[in-house]
User: What shape does this take?
Amino acid sequence: MSSMTRTAHKDGLELAVIQERLSGKDGQDYWRSLNELADTEEFQEYVHREFPEGASELSDGLGRRKFIQLMGASLAFAGLTACTRQPKELIVPYVRAPELMVPGKPLYFASAISQGGFARGVLVESHMGRPTKIEGNPSHPSNPREGAKFGPTDIFTQATILDLYDPDRTQVPIWNAKPSTWTRFRGSLATEMAKLDLDQGAGLRLLTETVTSPTLAAQIQDLLKKYPKAMWHQYEPNGRDNVRAGAQMAFGEVVETQYDFGKAKRVLSLDSDFTAVGSASVRYAGQFAEGRRIEDGQKNEMNRLYVVESVPSNTGAVADHRLPLKGSQIDGVARAIAQALGINAGGGNTYGHDVWVNALVKDLKAHQGESLVIVGDHQSPSVHALAHAINHTLGNVGKTVKHTAAVEASPVDHQASLNGLVSDMSAGTVSLLVMVGGNPVYNTPSDIDFKNALKKVPTTIHLGQALNETSQLCNWHLPESHALEAWSDARAFDGTVSIVQPLIEPLYSAQSAHEVLAMMLGDGRQGYAIVKEYWQAQRGGATFDNDWQTWLHDGLIPNTALAAKSVRLKGNYGSPVSSLDGLEVAFRLDPTIGDGRYANNGWLQELPKPNTRLTWDNAALLSPATAEKLGVKDDDVIDVAVNGHSVALPVWRMPGLPADTVTVHLGYGRTVAGRVGNGVGVNAYALQTSNALWQAQEASVSKTGQTYKLACTQDHWYMEGRGLVRTGTLEDYTHHPHMIHEMGHVPGEDANFFNGIHTSEEGHAWGMTIDLNACNGCNACTVACQSENNIPVVGKEQVLNGREMHWIRIDRYFKGSLENPELYNQPVPCMQCENAPCEVVCPVGATTHSAEGLNDMAYNRCVGTRYCSNNCPYKVRRFNFLHYSDDHTESLKLGRNPNVTVRGRGVMEKCTYCTQRISAARITAKVGGQELKDGDITTACQGVCPTNAITFGDINDPNSNVSKLKKQNRNYGLITELNTRPRTTYLARLTNPNSEIAQHG
Amino acid sequence: MAQLFSRSSNAFARTSIVLVLILVGTAITILLNTNRLKYTSDVEVAKQQPVPFSHKHHVTGIGLDCRYCHTSVEESSFANIPPVETCMTCHSQIWTESPLLEPIRESYRTDKPIEWVRIHDLPDFVYFDHSIHLSKGVGCQTCHGQVDQMPLMWKANTLNMEWCIECHRAPEKFVRPKEEVFNMTWQAVDDQGHNIQAVLGARLVKEYKINPSTDCSTCHR
Amino acid sequence: MASPAPIQEDPTAPAPVLGPGQTYTTITQKISSIITSRTTVGWIVAVALALGLMQCFLLGVTWLLIKGVGIWGLNIPVGWGWAIINFVWWIGIGHAGTLISAILLLMRQDWRNSINRFAEAMTIFAVICAMQFPLFHTGRPWVAAYWLLPYPNSMGVWPQFRSPLIWDVFAVSTYFTVSLLFWYLGLIPDFATLRDKAKKKISRMIYGVLAVGWRGSAKHWHNYEMASLLLAGISTPLVLSVHSIVSFDFSVGLVPGWHATIFPPYFVAGAVFAGFAMVLTLGLPIRAIYGLHDFITDRHLNNMSKVMLATGLVVAYGYGMEQFFAWYSASPYEGYMMQNRMHGPYQFEYWSLILCNVIVPQFLWIKSVRLNPYALFVVSMFINVGMWLERFMIVVTSLHRDYMPSSWDMYHSTLGDWLLYAGTIGIFLLGMFLFIRVMPVINMVEIRLLVPRKGHGKKPDHDASTEVSAE
Assistant: This one.
């Protein structure tokens, strides 16, 4: 009740009032954005800040505000305990209640979130008008899930909710570093456009990122029609250029290629991280995991994955055979495979892995039409072309592989497009540059001087959600509305169109790209009209209004997926790459903050990167052997130099990296990102050159003698022979089903000092299984949990102290040689032990056992002795050593889940299987007079998991999925010899190695 | 040498011992009961509201059903405080000139919501749900008291945790037939006027499958 | 026993517990002079230093209350750090006092008489210091204090009595109360003496009140004896129980390195070990400064050293047993824990611990060391450090690498940790210095009992007491 009124109190009133409150109370934030422009001390301070909201004060001794805030917190707690009276609270009901909304009940709206231009279908949870949580839309092709309430998503989609409430978002249009208004902007835009009319817009340039939105594309076409001499450029720093060029090389035309991992029995990945990167990664990860699912008796066949990669990836971690090679060597291997399959490629070279390659080829041949080869976006066009050829030769096209027309509205080569623009700008032929999103000043290779070119353009306009390196230098910086605030549309990887619908009025005075383009076209329509009228024109008809409603409700427009397209091989595979000895640099987009656009997102900054488990920084990743050869160790700062550029980066050793490879992640070193992202990490674009975007040979490394502390959440590499992650080969398992159980010991039921302590057979008994055969360590569960449970971000310093707060973490272990170890990922939430060691030691009974077997945690009861955490063998409890949760940033409060207490300082917290969701479902069922059914409750981590690795349910119900899985022979618990009787158990990981490749790897 | 203390100081010493004991005793008793006092828990304290809304008048006088205003009480955790719209359904016709209702009309004109003072205010870490309590036969009156007799709203119970637990531990003492939950005057008596709560309660608990949990997570998350 | 016969001629008799030529008068003079004489500069300087140290405590606590326990080096997995280490350390130190005043009394060890007073004082102050840590180690004492003693309670729920931390609350508070009573009881006759000797009216009043009208009548003496016997009886089990319960904080947990049945005896022995070390650390300087050689004789040093040696061996046995369990349990976790202590990142602490608590005390086998105050002082300092390290070893090295290698982490102390530790040392010293100045450091009455005289009446007869009041 009280929580609901808090919501009502917060924004139960008209949204206009929210805005008022924000622009009122957050006056500070508003001024900040100006300060950042004017290079004031405050700005310097922000730049040097490495900490997010709450933690930001931790660094500065005892800011007065922090002091008061903390005292406030303390008093509040004193208030709970001592006999002080509660403070007066107001109830602020609606003046006119919106329809459909039942106060206290969340609503879900279907929409779409785009990354790199490609849509992901989502269902957004909204409490009293505030979007609080993003779930996948189970009926959307990019993240499908049969018969489930929610579909999976990736980390970025989860984290966009935080971007919406980012306090550093621009709140009003800014003209030459001064606050302005949209009216003024319209005025000056009108004059600019008037000038353009004279020369058919010869001086007009439009720079966008990848565009798949049909409406936006149409608007741009209108613009180009109106101003024939104007030009549209696109730039987005990902490897998609190579994909397009590869298709061009192979087929003579740009096509989109889709894969069906569900049908593929043999998969070869050439440096592709298809389970975690790309517009369909969530779908692919799911399909691939399905192909590996083993069920005793029912399904005992699984696919086989070969990975040749230059950087250990999530995909590499789940490979049956992983071959680490330098990026430059992959071309040779691809050619060798092609040749072996009778493709006239030439220049093949297995680099001494003949056995491996021959076995692979044999295996592929044996699975014609049910195999597939996929290439990493950043690999050279010729490798892409070779892969196409191999897929065709193996007869996979039409079965596991499908070509369609390009999904992008205009599939141009971004690098070329940008180069063209920059030369025009430098030549001074550009009079008006309009940038819709993007940050080319920051995220372009070092040899492209966009910054100076920008100076030569008289009028520059940038539309973006927050100030960045580029918008800071533009005449106009316009606040762009967030995807959850505006009407739009976008295509998914397969072309399927989703209508993007807003859940909340723009928090600040922001407009969408559609609306800005409309202004340029002198058309005053708002987003809703623009999008709806476009589709009326496309699919108008008697039933349009109903269709429209249906599309909005379903979150997609049916039958908009692109049809298969038949293509012919041209037989052109470029020229072989000669791989030189010596160091080589591999560039990658950062796995958690992408090309840098998520730098101000605390969740993603603090999310441990796959395999390295690093947070808050990028590093120069070296294989242990190479590090030893160079005489460097973790945290040593080295100068990495290539193609005449160099940057200083801290070293981090990464087992499984090929020798002589320095992996560098782009996206860090932002200077104008906001309070979280400013000055975090090193800008590696400075090392990148447009002739060697993703891998650069002939690199050199020199020690600087300095060191820099990297914040890693898991320092220890090995399992110390403890049966934590249990693995076996499919073959052994089928012959010897109990092998997994024999790897550990489970005390018998009677092995208990107090009999009958176990929770009863009656009622519900919640349990969970996590299938290690499916998990690829993509981290989605961690972010989803953070979003669902109001988990604070603590900042780098605290992570260094070992105080990260994630309720579900991914443990990473290596097994075998350092050159090519097996990579294990293991998600670890609370085990909800039936004999929970934490419960007996709590002096105040703040953590107790519920009748349904949950290990409850009453935050308001906790005094913070931390005894429970000491006594927890799994170390899944998290403690608020300081006041981590931000209770002074208004906008962040809006994003919180009203059904979960925001924890204060000195309180222990932990996973409780999303007990708020359990209660909600239980109450709904009881009020409706039904019993809870299997699947009524989805925990946040379960719902988001792309591979469906997490299953939650009632283990007292023999027919529930979780019960069935717990009966599997692969099912085992962690450290069961302590007789903790964990309710969370794991399904052992099985591999399906090719017997001809002798030793694993 | 001279006596340092007079004889009387012995008596003083002895009595002081007794006094200390008494003091400590009273201190503990007072402490034990502070949170139960009406004063500390605001029980039966009517609070000043922007509009002196009288439940007595609207329920007893006009005979409005609780759900006319508290619309979501049966389906949601939050019973809902009615939007000004609801007030105006009648007050756009009657008492249109009443100065007392000016805040209502003003709010309706200006779209500025009215700020009511909260009476039943649980701490923010307590998650109470109206719908489940109603559906299991807990009457409004059981917790909120004779609202139909309150000219201005006040708290009828302390809403202390021990008070909640009392019912969660022994619901049969408090439940009533579902159809009576909104009845402000219902009493557990048979036609002879004997109290039948014990019998009735026990029956209803079975019938409605009432098993209120006392697990922490029932109310605290 | 103290025999009047010329001691030197009887080689079998133990060394005297009282220097020759001491009479009631000289004793009273000597001991009360410490209090009545003018304040020395040295004392003022000492107090000033102690006060300074104590400021660290105030600073540390203020900082703690404002920011939270994050100012300490704690993390997950190491949820307990210096707060608990210091708590156990101080509690341990307290034990000697109780042992001396209670057990030795019951055993009629008359040599205790000259050291029990400041040993007891030490106990009181040590326990006061110890109690600071449980209070502040949640960073939110206002909540902790309330939930652990939940009045007012309108929740219908109570503390959880399965948790050793709750046992601690009761164990420690009982221990403190009893020690305080015992100490005060012993002081009463001496307060009477001081009252009678006091010159100023005000001090006479104060000592008068404290002496609660003691006149040394036979009735008084009888009650006195009775009471001290009863209190001794009550506190004797406490010596064992308190530290056993403290050890449960660890042995009840399932952390490798904690979960061992040997902990209670091992902790109690360690406590006495540490306690006597601290008694010597304080006693030797006091003895030297105030020239109390006649009261704290070689016999005392000798006996205390022997007690230390004995308990030290028990502690060493405890370490041995930990090794044995690790091997015998065949549990990979226990095994790793032991390996990690000996060869892991904290090996320096472990081996220093062995040096301080196992090797150095062996010197006490040598009589000349036992009788040489300087050597003894050094040894006792080693033991003080060693016992702190032992607790560090138990708390930190067990936690920092327990079951899940993924969560392993290091613990590094911070300024916040140091402030509190130094602060409590300040509190302790300040207390001791003030005590020395205003109360008789040695129990005059009981010392008088040691004066050789005919009719070895252990019980003081009237003339003893009348003589007291006659002065």
In short: Residues 1-11, 454-471 of chain C have pLDDT under 50 and may be disordered. The two ends of chain C are 28 Å apart (CA to CA).
